[in-house]
Specification:
Blueprint lengths: L6 H7 L40 H14 L3 E5 L2 H9 L7 E5 L4 H14 L3 E5 L4 H7 L4 E7 L11 H10 L3 E5 L4 H4 L9 E5 L13 E5 L2 H14 L5 H11 L2 H20 L4 E6 L5 E6 L5 H7 L4 E2 L9 E3 L11 H6 L6 E5 L5 H13 L3
Parallel strand pairs: 2-3, 2-4, 4-5, 5-6, 10-11
Antiparallel strand pairs: 1-7, 6-7, 8-9, 9-12, 11-12
Helix pairs in contact: 2-9
The chain binds pyridoxal-5'-phosphate (PLP).
Length: about 375
């Protein structure tokens, strides 16, 4: 793929005329699982679709270019992408993990550590460089960061963490789901691996489950490719096409998500029913606490335009209740100690008209009296 001076252009041009035979502007969906060879030792570059598929290859090259990495890998979900990265490690390796992390990541790390002992997650406040340095042991092999974190929207300094990691020979892995390469490119700040739930902003329309990994460095890319092909949790050609189509409008969507979220954060701060608003000022993701826990159920019943649902990053606005949805697998006492209290709601602000979003919130708050 070609990259351009501006990410907006690179996004829009992804996959354009990727099929030289037809000049198709939209990336063709190639469903064939097998590819013929003209003779022994000859190949078109495609042999078997788990190993390489032409539609998936456009997406993989595209995300590698967008993130500034050497290779991209498309998988069947964000969790499959995280699991692929975990497969690079073995006991007694340890990861330092942001203490506020997506509940599914916590669940997988916890299960794999307790059952297979492959990798020990050690939770640390990644916003605190001293805390990170103190948590490093001879077994620490990587630092896994979410910034801003899910759902508390805490930010950390990827460049400073990467500098520290280099000193200790650790890999830096960043889950860039919330910011996307439009707002932040972790590899430019020293990260080694970037992972995405492409189900969210990248695909953007709540109709694709997908994960993407981008890595820097030949040896890392080769090992990830070996495992991706070996395990085979690859993204289907149709879903690869949908992700490419979604990416074309990513820059426009992020602009509107962020503008709407900025206004909604301000609006929420002015409402008497709100205890606090957590917003990094970036993307469309924010969280807020209602003054009373018993308002959560009636509020979620009262919203009409905004959907009470468990995902984020799509064009439609979603409100999620982390306590019983995304973060339900964290034991309650630990969850509350981490700040994921029972009055906390996460808001993925969509790209609807801001006045309609405010009107929906206003009428929902009015029902709490
Ligand atoms: C930050 C983050 N990372 C990873 C994932 C997992 O992605 P998926 O649902 O595509 O498996 C999610 C899902 O919500 C997420 O929010």
């Amino acid at each position: 793929m070609t990259t351009f001076n501006h990410i907006e252009t690179t996004l829009v041009q992804m996959g354009n005329r990727s099929d030289p035979r037809t000049g198709a502007v939209s990336t063709p969906i190639i469903l064939s699982t097998a590819y013929g060879r003209d003779g022994l030792g000859e190949s078109t570059g495609f042999d078997y679709t788990r190993t390489k598929n032409p539609t998936r290859a456009v997406l993989e090259q595209g995300i590698a270019d967008l993130e500034g990495g050497d290779a991209g890998f498309a998988l069947s979900s964000g969790m499959a992408a995280i699991q692929l990265i975990m497969s690079l490690f073995k006991a007694p390796d340890e990861w330092l993990v942001s203490s506020d992390v997506y509940g599914g990541t916590y669940r997988l790390l916890d299960f794999c550590y307790k059952n297979n002992h492959i990798l020990k997650p050690v939770y640390v406040n990644t916003a605190d460089l001293n805390a990170i340095e103190q948590a490093i042991t001879p077994n620490t092999k990587a630092i896994f960061i979410e910034t801003p974190s899910n759902p508390l929207m805490e930010e950390c300094d990827v460049a400073a963490i990467s500098a520290l990691a280099k000193k200790h020979n650790l890999l830096v892995i960043v889950d860039n789901t919330f910011l996307t390469p439009v707002l932040f490119r972790p590899i430019e700040h020293g990260a080694d691996i970037v992972v995405h739930s492409a189900t969210k902003y990248l695909s953007g329309h709540n109709d694709v489950l997908a994960g993407l990994v981008v890595a820097k460095g030949q040896s890392l890319c080769e090992r990830l490719y070996y495992l991706q092909n070996g395990v085979g949790a690859v993204l289907s050609p149709f879903d690869s096409f949908l992700a490419i189509r979604g990416l074309k409008t990513l820059a426009l969507r992020m602009e509107r998500h962020q503008a709407n979220a900025t206004e909604i954060a301000q609006f929420l701060r002015e409402q008497p029913e709100i205890d606090s608003v957590l917003y990094s000022g970036k993307s469309g993701m924010l969280s807020f606490r209602l003054k009373k826990e018993e308002w959560v159920a009636p509020f979620l019943k009262a919203i009409k335009l905004i959907t009470f649902a468990e995902s984020l990053g799509g064009t439609e606005s979603f409100i999620t209740y982390p306590s019983t949805q995304t973060h339900m697998d964290i034991p309650e006492a630990e969850r509350i100690a981490r700040g994921i209290t029972n009055n906390l709601l996460r808001f993925s602000v969509g790209i609807e008209h801001i006045d309609d979003l405010k009107a929906d919130l206003r009428q929902a708050f009015a029902q709490l009296k």
